[in-house]
Design brief:
9-stranded mixed sheet, 197 residues, single chain, alpha/beta
Length: 197
């Protein structure tokens, strides 16, 4: 009986130790989902705007969250990630921002096959937490283009950048700053689009 009890206790301890040894750290996942506090509004026109899926530089085309500690170097957090690739999270924010301007007859997205008047294309060029000099910041840069559908010609191109200080020197501080940068850039893209179309 005592030997059986000892064997049982040893088995339980072995299972517990195995579970501890096999413990895997699960990454924290974060969203990029902040909308602008203020969106410019303009009188509605009979214009249909197509919003193209955003493009992104290859080094940011990942759920891994990028940071830099020194110039010309990019690294990624191992235990902090985006919940989705940044361009997938950015797309609905662009669509909603354009809808909130109340300027367009309709906002459409692929695979829409009907007629539209203008195409809004965006390209995320930079989205990085920068610890390389002084106080850490998030740097975000997005290029926007307005293309006339009837001719395929580029009507206007503009590049928008935001540099936002991290409220705390942590990955989550970087997420907070990235959301603030996103909202700021979305507002500027809306102003640019309304002035162009």
């Amino acid at each position: 009986m005592i030997k059986s009890l000892q064997l049982f206790i040893v088995s339980i301890l072995f299972v517990m130790l195995s579970a501890c040894a096999a413990k895997v750290d699960i990454p924290n996942k974060y969203l990029l989902n902040r909308m602008p506090d203020v969106v410019p509004v303009k009188r509605k026109r009979a214009v249909i705007l197509m919003v193209a899926p955003p493009e992104i530089r290859q080094i940011y085309n990942t759920t891994q969250m990028a940071y830099t500690m020194k110039p010309f170097e990019i690294a990624y957090y191992s235990l902090n990630q985006w919940a989705n690739v940044p361009q997938e999270m950015f797309m609905p924010l662009v669509v909603q921002t354009m809808q909130d301007t109340h300027h367009f007859k309709a906002i459409v997205t692929p695979p829409y096959n009907g007629r539209y008047d203008y195409l809004l294309a965006t390209h995320i060029l930079e989205l990085v937490q920068d610890y390389s000099c002084g106080a850490p910041v998030v740097r975000m840069t997005v290029r926007a283009q307005i293309i006339k559908a009837s001719s395929g010609s580029v009507v206007a191109t503009r590049q928008f950048s935001a540099i936002v200080p991290l409220p705390q020197r942590t990955p989550y501080g970087g997420v907070f700053a990235a959301n603030k940068a996103t909202a700021h850039i979305l507002e500027r893209i809306a102003v640019f689009t309304l002035r162009t179309v």
